[in-house]
User: What shape does this take?
Amino acid sequence: MGKTVTRRAVLGGGAAGAAAVLAAPTASAAPGGRLEGKVVLITGATSGIGRAAALAFAAQGARVGFCGRRAELGREVERELRGRGFYVQADVREPAQVESFVDAVARRWGRLDIAFNNAGITIAKPVHEISIDEWENVQRTNARGVFLAMKYEIPHLLERGGVIICTASSQAGHTRPGHAAYTASKRAIQGIANAAALDYGANGIRVLTIDPGTTDTAFVRRPGIPDDQWAQFKRAWGPLNVHGLPRMAEPSEIAAAVLALASPDFSYLTGTSVVVDGGLGTGRPMTMPQLG
Assistant: This one.
């Protein structure tokens, strides 16, 4: 799969609002949206799950500040938000850039209510083939990036409470061959979030992780595959690899789960990981269909 970021549907009271987001193709805010007046911060939102989450939050009335390294894509998402959000070019590996981004979001709208720490990368290699730099890059982007984001978000959230959701992975629970660096970083994210939930629960801050299964994003799709071949690949891949709901997730489905978890409907949920993988199954090697 190369350089890949993988990102059970959440049921209950929060699912009704989330379902509405799935039906919304743009960021046009619904009148009296359920998150009207809330300020949301998202890392890694220039594509994939992060982009879908930015659009989902904006569609429910929130204001969204987001970052990512790819400025051209960031500006595209900013336009899609139709005035309900703004982009800051920032690298979650760099403390000063993360601090500046977080402060810019809080300063822009005078508060911070929800943070979705989503930025992440991976590398697929057996352990002995991973270079030191490759290992460090995955850990610095994923685990350290979440730590830095939380470090600078929490002082703003202490003012009135809020929610922090971090993207871990279903592979934090059951890894796959070649994913030592990725799984290590995602288990670390779970640990950071669980500890922070205990540190700040009394201050009204909920902290949890969402653990997506394989999701149809640009990081998963191999470069240069035509749309018809990719659709064929996805149809074959699902039944071979996902035992519950036999297909890949769509970014909007993961975004809907994030939106639901961030809503007041889950006000007593903290310090845990919510798996959204369609009933993926065990950690056996993935079976890859042939293209063409």
In short: The two ends are 17 Å apart (CA to CA).
